[in-house]
Amino acid sequence: MSLSASLPDLVAALPTGMVVTDADILAGYRQDRAQDPAAGTPAALVRPTTTAEVQTTLRWCAAHAVPLVTRGAGTSLSGGSTAVDGALVLSTERMRGLSIDSATRTATVQPGLLNAEVKAAAAEHGLWYPPDPSSFEICSIGGNVATNAGGLCCVKYGVTADYVLGLEVVLADGRAVRLGGKQIKDSAGLSLTRLFVGSEGVLGVVTEVTLRLLPPQPSACTVVGIFPSVSAASAAVLAVTEQIRPAMLEFMDAVSLNAVEDLLHMGLPRDAAALLIGQSDASGAAGQAEVALMQQVFESHGATEVFATDDPAEGEAFAAARRAAIPAVEKLGSLLLEDVGVPLPALPALIEGVAAISDTQRVTIAVVAHAGDGNTHPLIVFDPADADQTQRAQLAFGQVMDLAIALDGTITGEHGVGRLKKGWLPDQVGADVMQMTAAIKAALDPDGLLNPGVIL
Amino acid sequence: MSLSASLPDLVAALPTGMVVTDADILAGYRQDRAQDPAAGTPAALVRPTTTAEVQTTLRWCAAHAVPLVTRGAGTSLSGGSTAVDGALVLSTERMRGLSIDSATRTATVQPGLLNAEVKAAAAEHGLWYPPDPSSFEICSIGGNVATNAGGLCCVKYGVTADYVLGLEVVLADGRAVRLGGKQIKDSAGLSLTRLFVGSEGVLGVVTEVTLRLLPPQPSACTVVGIFPSVSAASAAVLAVTEQIRPAMLEFMDAVSLNAVEDLLHMGLPRDAAALLIGQSDASGAAGQAEVALMQQVFESHGATEVFATDDPAEGEAFAAARRAAIPAVEKLGSLLLEDVGVPLPALPALIEGVAAISDTQRVTIAVVAHAGDGNTHPLIVFDPADADQTQRAQLAFGQVMDLAIALDGTITGEHGVGRLKKGWLPDQVGADVMQMTAAIKAALDPDGLLNPGVIL
């Protein structure tokens, strides 16, 4: 193949050691957190530090028709950064530049920085970068942009797309373009910045991101409700969101509660059917009213215990418990990770339908959810050594997405389609939208080299 | 030409009277509020009421290679809905369907509804649609989507794109597609919903919009500052926005103040160099702190008078004065309307640069601004009967955009490029982005029939 013959050209064009072909190192870049056993083996790995090095890499890929998989921190839960046989993997892990501009309240960062590092740098300037995926301590900002990542505070503060003011992107042919900038409002030309957010590496490689920052989040009060049934909890979610816009409204079911308690030993209620964690960061009387409303709604929907605190550390302990769900449930077995979302009134039907699928397929499905915006994470647990159970888990994986589509929802609220969900995307969006997607992909990446197998 | 020969096919395919060729009626659909004297004369006008009728129209256009100009309420300030000779004008004015879904907190509307009608319908359900262009009482929601319209509250609450959850769009070949939906978060596939917002009718015809609604806006306190110089006022804007996120922060200069006072006789300070109107809708102590901060900043930046009120009617009177600026300044002569935006620290340089251009070209330029997000509206006044002055006004029009580009800003923050600003778009975004734009346009509208002459 052309790659091995021409790889020396790329090695020579980049700084010494930037191109890696060591099989042991490459093995660590095959899979992402989706742990797809079908992951391919890349031909080489490039770890650039500059936009110019990314351009050199993409020009070489274009010249030699070598596919490229862009990888951030490798935390994709949908196989978005799973390697493809013979591809070049471009890891952004060494692109770690950052500058904060207090005057424009923006952060301009390279994609390899972790979300938590951006948050910390903003905080040093008395500013706040809101999007907070549960994996914020280990996921990269480039991956957040690629998937339009969400998180816990997004029910009030929006998702990654709401904070991306500008991008630098290297296109399939190696050209680098700037989209948007530090200006807050911009209606000049097509919204290419917004098109690239969530495009999962199939349209270009993001090499710099300009993020809008906010003043610090006001301190939040937390309301926790313990429910005797998942339906009572999901009905309470609707009753809250119809009346206020909480700063957080998270759901955990019994399986996830017990898995987290096994991991963290923090005294979570093991016999609860569901837990809701609400937060209000409104100030003064408005905040008190939101807290009182959540308490009252939880109680009137049958919560057996309702607990409110204005201690940030106590509130954070519950949020941390929620964020620990995926690593905790991973202790129970291998996971197929769902990210289905529905319009809020369909949330109870989604959660009940997932339980029915769990029963039918005889697989454990833990459910956690960013309940306030209808985005749920059913986590399907299976033993890969048990072929029959694995098959039932895979059936359940598709049935959960089918259910979300039937409820006018989405197969992915914040993780992206990746490689694992693309089979369901046409069912959600339809053939015409798939054709539009392919046409735009072909317009920007005519040889189809960028992240092949993702979305399309 | 093919149009006149085949027009009877379209007439026959649509309900009686839906296709209009009466010259007197067509004359009213040549121009929009940009009043471009170079507007063309359309061959016919179609006023559909349903998506199916829009599809019929676009299929006919595709079959006969007839260009189509989509028009909402005709309030474009950049010539986005100016007619083209021989084109079909599709007016959405009769597409006025609306439904509010309180459970999902969404409005699903046809594009011809006015922004104010959407706001009013939401309010009837105790909900709020935030985006508030100054023209909100006369502009259509379809036009708002086409331009990614902003407004006064956008400094805190974001622009139209932040509220569009879903679209129905008829493509150039007549296919109707649904993008997004009522789910709040959606990372499934390319962000086509976001691509279509702000695409100014060049990628398709929006036939339905699903908008996110919020709980009602809390009542706001208003702080007004009267400044002896525009530089003092713009410095105060920066000092406010570095510390808080106000719910409104508007700027008016002396020309616009006097023009509005001539129109409204409300006692505005005729001898002020500039006026700032700030609002806080934070509740309780947080709101009091924001009001106190704006008062203190205005005073410390040399305001000769600072006035604060928690009376919503008084606050609205100042906002209404600001919104009246364009119609008021129109009384002084014909206008070339700018919409330039810059990163906030460059706001003083932009406002001072516009004054210098006004001096050099010897034309009056009134300046109003959504100052809190760096988006300004220099209004260039000229007498079209004075050829020399007209030429100088046109030079000033370009120089203001050149200045914004030099300050790393944008030629349009919320009005769109339309036909009047497209000459400056390449200078802002560069040749590569123009090529990407053309490639995406060609992918979705290969015959280039949709809103020709806009953006590209």
UniProtKB/TrEMBL annotation, chains A, B:
Keywords associated with the record: FAD, Flavoprotein, Oxidoreductase
Cofactor dependence: FAD
Gene3D superfamilies per record: 3.30.465.10, 3.30.70.2740, Vanillyl-alcohol Oxidase, Chain A, domain 4
InterPro entries per UniProt: FAD-bd_oxidored_4_C, FAD-bd_PCMH, FAD-bd_PCMH-like_sf, FAD-bd_PCMH_sub2, FAD-linked_Oxase-like_C, FAD-linked_OxidoTrans_Type4, Oxid_FAD_bind_N, Vanillyl_alc_oxidase_C-sub2
Entry keyword RNA-binding: no
Domain FAD-binding PCMH-type: 38-216
Top-rank taxon: Bacteria
Pfam families given in the database record: FAD-oxidase_C, FAD_binding_4
Protein name: FAD-binding protein
Taxonomic source organism: Ornithinimicrobium cryptoxanthini
Taxonomic lineage: Bacteria, Bacillati, Actinomycetota, Actinomycetes, Micrococcales
